[in-house]
Amino acid sequence: MSHDDLTPEEVAKILPPGAALGWGLAKPPQRGPKREMSIDLIVKKAVEIADKDGLPSVSMNRIASALGFTAMSLYRYIPSKDDLLILMQDAISDVPIPAERPPQEWRESMREYVMGTVGIFREHPWYGDIPILGIPITPNNLRIVDWALQSLRDMPLNDYEKMSIVLLLSGYARTYGMLQRDIDRAVQAGSSEEEFSGLNYSAALRNLIKPEQYPNLHPIVMSGAYTGENEDENTVGNDLDFGLERILDGIEQFLIRKTTSDATEHHK
């Protein structure tokens, strides 16, 4: 038997228990509550608690109490808190995938992927609080990766280049998604977007930032660009769109250079 022909039991042994549960490879518990309890129900309740009160509020005891069972009952379905976190991450990654666009609309496809990922961080603010421990290996997370690869399928790229572009886009989406999440949290806590951006401190900063100490920052502060004072006059658009467009420009230039290089090699 080759390494590609594993039985479900062998696959389950390779994966973390939480990932094996996500793929439906784990056996149901022999003892404990029947029908009333399920992995999906436990995960759904955990996500509800995290959405409402944050990740530190999620515990087997609290979930069990909310469902009317004991924590020991939950452990028969999900072995550990770490496995629960894996399943929670996968559950919130079950998002609608937009219809596939024509190949020439690859920029729009990538933009949809990035904005969809940012949306997950905003809808489930605790998502970014879970550290990245490795590559995606659960069903819905891998659907997200497959979505990201969709627009790259017919491009003249090797598999390494395709995955590197996916990592670039997902990294940008994660960074901006967590930033937007923090803005949302600050506003909910009583702050304002103006305070978060520093707009309220513009006059103070103009007095504090001296050209001899901050020769490069000084003109930016004085123009109002540092705190976004004149954004209505800014034709670039917001920071997320501007950064994403520059990333897409870079990918486009890479494709042009690679196509030209391949054509040159072909005619040698």
From TrEMBL:
Pfam family for this entry, one: TetR_C_1
Which residue ranges hold the DNA-binding region? 59-78
Which is a GO BP term held by this UniProt record?
Answer: negative regulation of DNA-templated transcription
Q: Which SUPFAM superfamilies match?
A: Homeodomain-like, Tetracyclin repressor-like, C-terminal domain
Residue span(s) of domain HTH tetR-type: 36-96
Going by the UniProt record, its keywords in alphabetical order are:
DNA-binding, Transcription, Transcription regulation
- GO terms of molecular function: DNA-binding transcription factor activity; transcription cis-regulatory region binding
Matches recorded under InterPro entries: Homeodomain-like_sf, HTH-type_TetR-like_transc_reg, HTH_TetR, Repressor_TetR_C, Tet_transcr_reg_TetR-rel_C_sf
Quote the PANTHER family the UniProt record gives: HTH-TYPE TRANSCRIPTIONAL REGULATOR RUTR, TRANSCRIPTIONAL REGULATORY PROTEIN
Tell me the protein's name: TetR family transcriptional regulator
What species is given as this protein's source?
A: Paenibacillus dendrobii
